[in-house]
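During the reporting period the student researcher (J.K.) took over the structure-prediction task from the postdoctoral fellow and processed the backlog of single-chain submissions. One of the processed entries is reproduced below for the supervisory committee.
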Amino acid sequence: MNFPAELRYTKDHEWISLEGNVATVGITDFAQRELGDIVYVDIDSVGKSLEAEAVFGTVEAVKTVSDLFLPVAGKILEVNPVLNDQPELVNTDPYGQGWMVKLEVANVADVAALMSAEDYSASVS
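J.K. obtained the following structure tokens:
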């Protein structure tokens, strides 16, 4: 499985990348494999300020529906519009075109406290 070293990870299988105080969030390669074929992404939290680990949406696979948890506190700025028509991008490109949301991070230091790729890989193996 692929866990890019430049990203940080959560126990709930989300990844986060940070640029300034804006973060991009998605689900990991491990998570998309566990879920199977993703058929719908439902995120209606744009403009909302949420705490870390708050549910910001759901992802629906053929077999199940799973909540999406925010890695750090912040305000949701944008949802990936491509996922409306192509939710399968979460399966085929989870760290690229399959990203879920962009958020303004409340405290940038919180990102560094999340798991490294090495730690996350150990937690799922």
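The committee noted the following: The helical segments are 29-35, 89-92, 109-112, 117-124.
J.K. will present the remaining backlog at the next meeting.
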